[in-house]
Specification:
alpha/beta; two-stranded antiparallel ribbon; binds nicotinamide-adenine-dinucleotide
């Protein structure tokens, strides 16, 4: 990393964080600490039983559960949830799940001013950010605002022990992508740089142990700790080419979120490392055991963890890459390394085939 201290603004971390094992037991106290007493628990249908049990465990502090959260936060689902929120007289939301459920909590908060407690069960990292992506009429839009950021986050390692291995790996790579882009973001600060370096080290250390033994609690804690740091970084800075391309593929081709990030990351990071070798030195160091340099290191790490490596595995074709390159260069996007359509098409072509980044 460069020894130069750049001028910076650090807005501070405003979200209260409870991290540990068995921390879900703190939820009632956290609801009370917000001055609230009627929580609506949110989840996807897949985690519906867990959410219903959590609402029951909260007793008088919960009004029930809404278990229809859906990926990409469709506005019609948000409207259904707000109807339940109002009918039950809820005064806050508890989002139990991954980015889809936390996205619904944010969408409700953005419209009602409700306080949110997020309880993440993946490593996607929505919980610490002020970012809300939602879909209406088939189009996904993203906005930022302090009213979107959850008031409190409870990280409970126990809730990640059963996260399926494939999702564990792709979600952890999704987290690393936040750290990579935060490290070269123009609005980063030295605090963010430290957090991102620590995040890469924690995930590089923890994820191989989780892959070897998915219920290794200490290793799961390392990965969740890293994911927290990545989420906190994402919530403080602007993103660049990597998130842009993931957004293009997810938004226009319907590719799954975590897998898309996982496959793109070695290619986007490798591309930008040419321009920002000092900034990305912590990434190169953390993943050096798997390859020499940012792109090869991340590529080797992802392969060793058993991640999907090719966009073709998601059903994409060379023709899709042509269209994706057109869309990606259609709207200007800040990035540390200048690029043109040929650059993006070459990058996407390498990701399509799973080639080792140069
Ligand atoms: P997800 O929330 O869609 O979860 C995928 C599936 O895994 C769901 O069925 C979920 O119920 C299940 N699941 C979650 N945790 C589990 C666990 N521990 N055990 C078993 N099953 C579990 O997936 P995701 O990758 O966490 O989130 C993706 C969404 O989050 C996308 O819509 C993305 O845009 C959004 N996101 C937003 C931000 C932000 O800052 N706004 C950041 C990251 C991701």
């Amino acid at each position: 990393m460069s020894s130069e201290v750049r001028p910076f603004v650090f807005p501070g971390l405003t979200t209260r964080v409870i991290f540990g094992q068995g921390t879900l037991a703190c939820l009632g106290d956290e609801v009370s600490a917000l001055g609230r007493s009627r929580a609506l628990v949110l989840s996807t249908p897949h985690q519906g039983d867990q959410a219903t049990a959590l609402a029951q465990a909260l007793g008088d502090s919960a009004v029930g559960a809404f278990t229809d959260a859906t990926m990409h936060t469709p506005v019609e689902v948000t409207e259904q949830a707000i109807t339940v929120f109002r009918q039950t007289g809820a005064d806050c939301v508890v989002s139990l799940g991954g980015g889809s459920t936390i996205g619904l909590g944010k969408a409700i908060a953005a419209r009602t001013g409700a306080d949110q407690i997020a309880i993440p069960t993946t490593y996607a990292g929505s919980e610490m950010t002020d970012i809300l992506g939602e879909t209406a009429d088939g189009a996904k839009t993203t906005r930022r605002g302090e009213e979107i950021r959850p008031e409190a986050v409870i990280y409970d390692v126990d809730l990640t022990l059963g996260l399926p291995l494939e999702m564990t790996v792709t979600s952890a790579l999704n987290a690393i992508a936040h750290a990579v882009e935060a490290l070269y973001a123009p609005d980063r600060s030295p605090i963010i740089e430290m957090m991102c370096a620590a995040a890469c080290d924690a995930i590089a250390d923890g994820l191989p142990k989780v892959v070897a033994a998915p219920s290794n609690q200490a290793a799961r804690a390392r990965v969740l700790y890293g994911a927290w740091l990545c989420s906190a970084a994402l919530g403080q800075v602007s993103m660049a080419l990597h998130h842009k391309l993931a957004h293009v593929l997810g938004g226009s081709f319907g590719t799954p979120h975590a897998e898309t990030h996982a496959i793109l990351l070695p290619h986007t990071a490798g591309f930008n490392a040419v321009q920002t070798p000092d900034e990305l030195a912590p990434v190169a160091a953390a993943f050096a055991p798997w390859g020499d340099g940012v792109g090869p290191g991340l590529h080797g790490f992802a392969a060793a963890m058993g991640a999907p490596m090719r966009l073709s595995e998601l059903g994409l074709t060379a023709t899709d890459m042509d269209r994706a390159a057109d869309i990606a260069v259609g709207t200007p996007y800040p990035n540390p390394r200048p690029f043109d359509r040929a650059d993006i098409r070459a990058l996407l072509g390498a990701a399509l085939e799973g080639a080792v980044p140069a």
